[in-house]
Write a structure and sequence with these properties.
By secondary structure, the chain is of the alpha/beta class. The chain is about 35% helix and about 25% strand. The chain is globular. The chain starts with a strand and ends with a helix. The protein binds adenosine-5'-diphosphate and magnesium ion. Keywords: ATP-binding, Nucleotide-binding, Transport. It comes from Actibacterium mucosum KCTC 23349. Belongs to the ABC transporter superfamily.
């Protein structure tokens, strides 16, 4: 998949600096978490990576291609949101096939609710691709259901499936498990880790939950107040935090 470089990203909202020159180099196939307390700038950084937000300065480079000014649809990254953002009136199969049509659509057709109705129509290749992904995620039996008939974990899997169908360069996830109850969250952590191992895909995963970051990451970037304070493997950061702030946040032994 892709190597991702964030180079000196700065962002202000009004007078408030939210990202203060953040740099991070993510290797091809790596599972990297951006972890830190609420409000430290994680989501903003991920949105800048995905192109949903523009940085004031700095560069985003994907596989040696500078995509700083490139619109989200042309970056070929899959964003999996906190809210599942599935179309409630479409089946799982239809939900999974919508992203494939996106690039060929007009702005009106891209609109939620209205768009999929206009864009609907049989397409055998899409169905095949969607059913291959469904098999990988073990959701084949759910393909004809509507999102309302699914559990939280199943919905999460469908949202992930929809992202996978597009064969993106990387998966970007912003607190994807935060709507799930505690037991299911732990279960889904293991599932995502297993999926990462199987896909060998690049994952950039945002969470405020240090336990999640410690258990899932190849490397974690600990963020505070718009800066990355430390980047490293979970055991490295846990055992050798570089500041008191990092130690406190991670819950390192005193
Ligand atoms: P996190 O995801 O780590 O909780 P965010 O990236 O969402 O943090 O937000 C970082 C800071 O930027 C917060 O103080 C937040 O209030 C502020 N912020 C985020 N988005 C906007 C926006 N669109 N307009 C103004 N302030 C924003
Ligand atoms: Mg956030």
């Amino acid at each position: 998949m892709a190597r991702i470089q964030l180079d000196q990203i700065e962002k202000r909202f009004g007078d408030t600096p939210v990202l203060k020159g953040v740099s991070l180099d993510i290797q091809d196939g790596e599972f990297v978490t951006l972890v830190g307390p609420s409000g430290c700038g994680k989501s903003t950084l991920l949105r800048i990576l995905s192109g949903l937000e523009a940085a004031d300065s700095g560069r985003v480079v994907i596989d040696d291609r500078d995509v700083t000014g490139v619109r989200p649809a042309d970056r070929n990254l899959a964003m999996v949101f906190q809210s599942y953002a599935l179309y409630p009136h479409l089946t799982v199969a239809e939900n999974m096939m919508t992203p494939l049509r996106m690039r060929d659509l007009t702005p009106v057709q891209r609109m939620p609710v209205v768009g999929p109705l206009i864009a609907r129509g049989p397409h055998r290749d899409m169905r095949k691709q969607a059913s291959d992904v469904a098999e990988t995620l073990k959701i084949t039996a759910l393909m004809d259901r509507k999102p309302g008939q699914l559990s939280g974990g199943q919905r999460q899997r469908v949202a992930l499936g929809r992202a996978m169908v597009r064969k993106p360069l990387a998966f970007l996830m912003d607190e994807p498990l935060s709507n799930l109850d505690a037991a299911l969250r732990v279960h889904m952590r293991a599932e995502l880790s297993e999926l990462h191992r199987r896909l060998k895909a690049t994952f950039v995963y945002v969470t405020h939950d240090q336990a999640e970051a410690l258990t899932m990451s190849d490397r974690m970037a600990v963020m505070m107040h718009g800066d990355i304070l430390q980047v490293g493997a979970p055991d490295e950061i846990y055992l050798d935090p570089n500041t008191l702030e990092v130690a406190r946040f991670i819950g390192s032994p005193a």
